[in-house]
Design a protein that fits this description.
This protein has six helices and two strands, in the order ββαααααα. With 163 residues, the chain is mostly helical. The chain has a two-stranded antiparallel sheet. The chain is flat, with a radius of gyration of 28 Å. It comes from Engystomops pustulosus (Tungara frog). It holds the Pfam family Med26. Its main location: nucleus.
Length: 163
């Protein structure tokens, strides 16, 4: 049987780190980290970038760095509103440096189109079987009863203690 099998040597990895079999580099084959995902944002980072964007005499390099980092992320509408990062980016659209203003326009339009697409999507309705619905409704009822008793007990306790 071995007489009919032709064994070709496996292609080796090139010296530049590129896998010749699939045309990918070694670094590209790794798993993505949580922070590298577009929709995952850290509020501290957003607040830090907002401070950088709002400082009056900030260098163009710092502004472009912050805007490029923001371009890599797509925060939710709630995060944009609560941190007011959208206002900071919008104010930079009229910056005297064209590079900063163009980058701010790109970030703003990217976020705006994403939010518009999210609003247009229909909500997904999940249906369950009757047994699961019954179990969930019982759990909701029991939780609401327990929480109602806790609220009543804390109100009574506050009345007794005089708080």
């Amino acid at each position: 049987m071995d007489r009919f099998v032709i064994r070709n040597p496996k292609p080796r990895e090139a010296e530049d780190g590129k896998d010749t079999r699939r045309g990918r580099t070694k670094a590209a084959t790794g798993q993505a980290t949580l922070h590298s995902l577009k929709r995952v944002v850290v509020l501290e980072d957003i607040k830090r970038w907002k401070c950088i964007l709002e400082l009056p005499h900030q260098t163009t390099e710092n502004l472009t760095d912050a805007l490029t980092q923001l371009k890599k992320k797509i925060p939710s509408e709630e995060v944009i509103r609560s941190t007011r990062i959208g206002e900071a980016v919008e104010n930079l659209q009229i910056h005297r440096d064209t590079e900063v203003s163009e980058l701010a326009k790109e970030v703003h339009s990217q976020w705006e189109t994403f939010i518009q697409e999210q609003r247009c999507r229909p909500t997904i309705e999940v249906r369950c079987d009757a047994a699961t619905e019954k179990l969930r409704s019982q759990a909701r009822r029991m939780l609401s009863q327990a929480l109602d008793k806790e609220v009543r007990a804390s109100v009574t306790w506050h009345k007794i203690c005089g708080r």
